Structure formats: structure tokens, C-alpha cells
Amino acid sequence: MATKAQAEPSVGTEKHGHSPRTWVRRVENGGQITEYCPTYCTDHHTNDQDECLSHLFHGFHFERPEVAVFDAKDGTALAPILQGRIQIAPYDQNPRLHMPHLVFEPFQDEVMECVDPDDFADIISKIRTHCDRLDEIHSQLVQIRTEWLEAQA
Fold first, then answer.
1. Are 9 and 23 in contact (CB under 8 A)?
2. How would residue 26 be classed by pLDDT, with cut points 50, 70 and 90?
3. Does one domain contain both 51 and 62?
């Protein structure tokens, strides 16, 4: 079971590519650890003060397109598609989460009904444009993971 800790994060920018941040987390049962926030992380960590170590995540969300989804009750609403986040959970019980990885949501449990040819063409266009961005995210994930592995050596 993870140890509960308190944190005092330093102030960092909310933009990808900031300087690495560190802060001391006081472990509830005594002792402390120095926490390191990677440069790609845009999490503010202000809510990590009273959380268990296993609840700590470092990461960033990437942009996602929105498409109009028809709901018979509520009418048309915008829904995000192809969204995700690169993250690491350094203290999670699952060792696979200790390395940078992607949390990916291709679509939020919505159904697209009554799509005409023009709307369908628009959806295809948005997905095609976003696929170029996903290629960039893939490259970032490979680079971040390589840097992480080198730092662990």
C-alpha cells in the first residue's frame, strides 16, 4: 500500500517545456522524499499535498477535435474525439505505469446518428488533420520514454 505524503510544489509554468520542478514531500509516517516533475509535465501538483504517493501523476493532455453528436433528448452537442494524455505514475502498484505511457480516448461513449455526406466529410477532415498531430505525439512519447530510460540508468 502506498504511503500518504504531503507536498509543497514549487510554482511552475503551465506550458510544455518549462524547467523541471522539484519539491519535498513529507511522508506522513516520517521522512521525506524529493519529488521531480519532468519538463513535459503541465500538472500543477497543488492537490498532491495530502495524496498518497500512488496517486501522483506527471503528464500533459494534448489537443483534441470536437464533432457534433446528435442526442434525441438534448439535441446536438459537441463531443471530443481522439483525446488523450501522456503520463507517468511513478508510485503506482502497476509497474507498467512507472514508464511514460499514453492514456487514449478515441471517443466518449457517444453515438453519431443521422450523419449526412457533408457532415461525414467534415468529420473525416478533422480526423485526418488530427492524425498528423498524433504522429507528433507519438514522436514525443518515444523521445520522453527514451529520456526517462536514460535518466533511470
1. yes
2. confident
3. no
